[in-house]
């Protein structure tokens, strides 16, 4: 009986590790998440500053989601630790009204948690 009690924590730990590994979000899921976050960010900042072009800017962001997702894919580095992943996206631009943007995100249990985002 003593032996089975000492095995239970190990079995639980293996179970939690397996659940984490199975629910570690993939690159494609992150790209969709990041594109949505990037669209929200640019809509709230860039489109608001371009007041005379605000409607066109918002419309462009809505129709260009596939392009934004491709941009995210090209500018993201993923560190996969098996049970979780860390994603770092850095978009640099030289356009006058479009700032550079950096986002760091933690992915676990099929969800994403952005812990740092900054506009430069």
Using the alpha-carbon principal axes, give the shape: elongated
Count helical runs: 5
Arithmetic mean pLDDT: 83
Order of strands, widest sheet: 1-2-3-4
Secondary-structure-based class equals: alpha+beta
Layout of secondary structure:
Elements lengths: L1 H21 L4 H18 L1 H4 L4 H10 L1 H10 L1 E5 L4 E7 L9 E8 L2 E9 L1
Antiparallel strand pairs: 1-2, 2-3, 3-4
Helix pairs in contact: 2-5
Descriptive report:
The chain is α+β, with helices and mostly antiparallel strands and 120 residues long. Helix content is 52%, strand content 24%. The protein has helices spanning 2-22, 27-44, 46-49, 54-63, 65-74; strands spanning 76-80, 85-91, 101-108, 111-119. It has a 4-stranded antiparallel beta sheet with strand order 1-2-3-4. Strand 3 and strand 4 form a beta hairpin. Helix 2 packs across helix 5 (65-74).
In short:
The chain is α+β, with helices and mostly antiparallel strands. Helices cover 52% and strands 24% of the residues. 17% of the residues are buried.
Keywords for this entry:
alpha+beta; 4-stranded antiparallel beta sheet; 5 helices; 4 strands
């Amino acid at each position: 009986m003593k032996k089975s009690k000492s095995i239970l924590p190990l079995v639980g730990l293996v179970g939690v590790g397996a659940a984490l590994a199975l629910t570690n979000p993939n690159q494609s899921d992150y790209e969709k998440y990041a594109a949505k976050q990037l669209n929200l960010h640019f809509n709230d900042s860039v489109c608001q500053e371009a007041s005379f072009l605000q409607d066109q800017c918002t419309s462009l962001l809505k129709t260009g989601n596939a392009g934004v997702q491709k941009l995210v894919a090209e500018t993201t580095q993923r560190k996969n630790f098996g049970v979780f992943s860390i994603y770092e996206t850095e978009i640099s631009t030289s356009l006058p009204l479009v700032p550079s943007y950096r986002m760091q995100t933690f992915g676990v249990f099929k969800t994403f948690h952005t812990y740092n985002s900054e506009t430069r």
